[in-house]
Amino acid sequence: MSAPAVHSLWTTTAADSIGTIPSPHIEYGQISPVLIVAGAAMVGVLFEAFVPRKARYYAQVILAVLGLAAAFAAVVALAADGYGSASKAHIAAEGAVAVDGPALFLQGTILLTAVVAIFTFAERRLDPAAGSHRVDSFAAQGAAMPGSDAEKAAVRAGFTTTEVFPLSLFAVAGMLVFPAANDLLTLFVALEVLSLPLYLLCALARRKRLISQEAAVKYFLLGAFSSAFLLFGVALLYGYSGSVTYARIAEVVDGTVQNVDPALAGTMGNDALLLIGAALVIMGLLFKVGAVPFHMWTPDVYQGAPTPVTGFMAAATKVAAFGALLRLLYVVLPGLTWDWRPVMWGVAIITMIGGAIVAITQTDIKRLLAYSSIAHAGFILAGVIAASPNGISSVLFYLAAYSFVTVGAFAVVTLVRDAGGEATHLSKWAGLGRRSPLVAAVFAVFLLAFAGIPLTSGFAGKFAVFKAAAAGGAVPLVIIGVISSAIAAFFYIRVIVLMFFSEPRPDGPTVAVPSPLTMVTIGVGVAVVLVFGIAPQYFLDLAGQAGTFAR
Amino acid sequence: MNPVYYLYLASLLFTIGAAGVLIRRNAIVVFMCVELMLNACNLAFVAFSRLHGNLDGQIIAFFTMVVAAAEVVVGLAIIVSMFRARHSASVDDASLMKL
């Protein structure tokens, strides 16, 4: 396009008579889950400003849970209205978000996971009370320097960081948009909306604050680094196709695009733009997922963040990021399947094997769970690689099964404590089964589910993704997956043996008795393990019905 | 004026930023290098916008600026709190979790 013609885009309209600008057509009802959560988050910010400090905790917890529950009700209403089925699924809000089966399924999963995670955020019986005030796992005052007089004064005054509730709601709002994003700009903004609150939440641990701040710095710098890569990928894909909407890019990639102008004809032929752009965007998403070449942040951040935040992050972020990755690969880049499949094969293989092998050497329970989550990302990638409707639904099922168990497992970690807070070193867990058989048994159930023992949710999930991968022609990948499952089972079983068959240490940790909030979180985790493990059919059907993307 | 030169410049700035993130040791400087990468993206967006003759890229550049500003707010808060606790903003010193 010539220079004057481009210039006229924003100059000549002033000379013409200015007509009415058509207002964008937004289907508010169909994006109501996001709006409800974002609205609740903003009301939460107002609560911080206007509600007296004493009443803030209850106000924030009730608001957060009500907001998430209302959003979940909206998701269910949309699904009952038929938006999950292929016939009615469509693109809403001027092409910005999709309302379809995978989006609704993942949004429902994220919302329920967030509810149980909020319960662990609100737990106030584990840490010893500061004076007459009960405290949660978050710093009395994030701005007060660790060990300073200001911090001591804040603790004495019984301050709590109730900002964590609106922050987590903002993160959930980003996570709801992330798997539904239908253009690359929405994808990028959703990524930032979900990440920025998480960086802050990581820095807010009550105990071990230096480690917590360090985790936040690492997560922030690496997260910002990766989102810059994602953004450059978006820029290159925009340059390639002249548009950021998924459908348009897919058409240009396939070569089925109509009315090609000369500029587009020039850039369409440039495969470097497409390949580098797609690679950079996928890289940004794989970082969020925690797949192996981009997993370096995972163990440090999982270890340093407050444990309730770790559980929330490990479960909900993974669900959202896999949703976005699935949509990108299946809607935008199906024309590139033969290019991305070999790369994802490699990533899946090193993720499964790397996660499982490095986990064996870990001595900290939170780091161990972090490496286990890396290995699980590899298993889920095996389902992504199937490139078939079965692949989509198996990944959806796996994510639903995995997320509640993860939140539950981290909730158990918050219970095992000694004088310094949570006792996360594995040696302290020795003989836990003798002292508190119930907690150890529940944790063993979670570990067996992670290992994928039959009759647990992990087995049903792994079976689904491996079956889809094998049907998609990735048999070697399935074999490697089974081998690395066996390696992973070794260290899960090792923890169980440590808990039940070794002598308790005299200076061992105590198990705190939680409030009903954490009990609900753990109970939901156990229920999901059993229900998804013994009677998975209903949920497999649900995921199967949800397995079609709107274009 | 060939828009391709702007893309070369954007790629160069992006590479300088990425190299800076990997090489520099001060958290603030690392963060500034990330901002340089985001600005390189902006330049690419605007250049492509000109190339294709639509305004999407210019609009996205505004979104990127807002996101970068929000990132500064969060990032500086975290880096400053770490600096106050340790009297150092070096990312090499942040190694409490090394085994």
From TrEMBL, chain A:
It is a multi-pass membrane protein. Residues 181-487 form the NADH:quinone oxidoreductase/Mrp antiporter transmembrane domain. InterPro entries: NADH-Q_OxRdtase_suN/2, ND/Mrp_TM. The chain crosses the membrane at residues 31-50, 57-80, 104-122, 164-181, 187-205, 217-238, 272-297, 309-330, 342-361, 368-389, 395-416, 437-457, 477-501, 513-535. It is found in: Cell membrane; Endomembrane system; Membrane. One of its GO terms (biological process) is ATP synthesis coupled electron transport. It catalyses: a quinone + NADH + 5 H(+)(in) = a quinol + NAD(+) + 4 H(+)(out). Keywords: Cell membrane, Membrane, NAD, Oxidoreductase, Quinone, Translocase, Transmembrane, Transmembrane helix, Transport. Its EC number is 7.1.1.-. It is an enzyme of class 7 (translocase). One of its GO terms (molecular function) is quinone binding. GO terms for cellular component: endomembrane system; plasma membrane. NDH-1 shuttles electrons from NADH, via FMN and iron-sulfur (Fe-S) centers, to quinones in the respiratory chain. The immediate electron acceptor for the enzyme in this species is believed to be a menaquinone. Couples the redox reaction to proton translocation (for every two electrons transferred, four hydrogen ions are translocated across the cytoplasmic membrane), and thus conserves the redox energy in a proton gradient. PANTHER family: NADH DEHYDROGENASE. Belongs to the complex I subunit 2 family. NDH-1 is composed of 14 different subunits. Subunits NuoA, H, J, K, L, M, N constitute the membrane sector of the complex. This is NADH-quinone oxidoreductase subunit N. It comes from Streptomyces montanisoli. The lineage of its organism: Bacteria, Bacillati, Actinomycetota, Actinomycetes, Kitasatosporales. The gene is nuoN.
Automatic annotation (TrEMBL), chain B:
Its EC number is 7.1.1.-. Its main location: membrane. GO terms for biological process: ATP synthesis coupled electron transport. It is found in: Cell membrane; Membrane. It holds the Pfam family Oxidored_q2. It comes from the Bacteria. GO terms for cellular component: NADH dehydrogenase complex; plasma membrane. It catalyses: a quinone + NADH + 5 H(+)(in) = a quinol + NAD(+) + 4 H(+)(out). InterPro entries: NADH_UbQ_OxRdtase_chain4L/K, NUOK/Mnh_C1-like. It is an enzyme of class 7 (translocase). The chain crosses the membrane at residues 6-23, 28-48, 60-80. Keywords: Cell membrane, Membrane, NAD, Oxidoreductase, Quinone, Translocase, Transmembrane, Transmembrane helix, Transport. GO terms for molecular function: NADH dehydrogenase (quinone) (non-electrogenic) activity; quinone binding. It is a multi-pass membrane protein. PANTHER family: NADH DEHYDROGENASE SUBUNIT 4L-RELATED, NADH-UBIQUINONE OXIDOREDUCTASE SUBUNIT ND4L. Belongs to the complex I subunit 4L family. NDH-1 is composed of 14 different subunits. Subunits NuoA, H, J, K, L, M, N constitute the membrane sector of the complex. This is NADH-quinone oxidoreductase subunit K. It comes from Streptomyces montanisoli. The lineage of its organism: Bacteria, Bacillati, Actinomycetota, Actinomycetes, Kitasatosporales. The gene is nuoK.
